[in-house]
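User: Fold this; tokens only.

Assistant: Input:
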Amino acid sequence: MADETDNHKKLKHLWQLQGAKEGLQLVKADLMVDGSFDDAIMGCDGVFHVASPVLGPKSNPKAEILDPAIKGTLNVLKSCKRSSSVKRVILTSSSAAVRVREDFDPNVPLDESSWSSVELCQRLQVEAEKAAWEFAKENAMDLVTVLPSFVIGPSLPQDLCSTRESEKFSWHGRMGYVHIDDAALCHILVYEEPSAQGRYLCSSVVLDNNDLVSLLGERYPSLPIPKRCGCVVFSCD
């Protein structure tokens, strides 16, 4: 009974979405189990794979983040292969799979053909996306990947936001941002557009710390935004 109650609380926000009672169907599955998604994917025209382990302070990044990301992605693609109805698969990757480079040259623009150095970001999604592309090519699968920058905006519900797992998060320098609604729309567009292929960067404005602090300070004057040593620090309380 306790598990049933916890599960109801976890899924409550999904059933509150507009049209959920008429068109939403939830299926239990496990990314780490091959074949777990077979029944859910059977009969579908398209599949959106947006789940991946969240980056964080892990004791064993390879075992707890990298391996599950690769295995989970391949398990979903294997289920897609077993379904004759699936026409296209959309995979959410990350702009981090493009912009972390050893040979960074500010005069050479990065685009969807760029790849991050695997050695520099073993904890990121480079290998998961590369594994997906290898599988898609070997099995003649129509795969399109979306690489969002730092996604901002509300989550459903708020306590699902990964950044809220820690009290504070910080960064230095410049960063690209995209609203979660735009990221979702990008996924839909590349699924519906027949000519879409390959990798698509999904980003909007690029801001440095000073620009970001100024923007947030003007829009939310009552919100305390500390700034120190060129590093922006936000509380997630």
